[in-house]
Specification:
2 helices, 100 residues, single chain, 3 strands, 3-stranded antiparallel β-sheet, Ybab, Chain: A
Amino acid sequence: MKMKQIQKMMHQAQQMQERLEQQMQSLEVEGSSGGGMVVARLDGKKNLLGIEIKPDAVDPDDVELLQDMIIAAVGEAARKIDLALNKQMEGMAGGLLPGT
């Protein structure tokens, strides 16, 4: 492989990384648990943007259940971000390989 080809591939990789970062910054996903009793919203960098808790989910005698639902909702949203990131990377990787 010639040096020019390598430089071109490196430049393409850098551009793709920048595009991916921009797309992930604008990404917003929701995860829920307890049949929608708790909904967590995260951005593409997995920062918690908001959380909604239905009044019925709040039981002073069972705080642990609410805590578990919050953890589950945030975890689901984080998994959705990982899936979106993987899809973006797969789509972009095709442009880096010669002949694709």
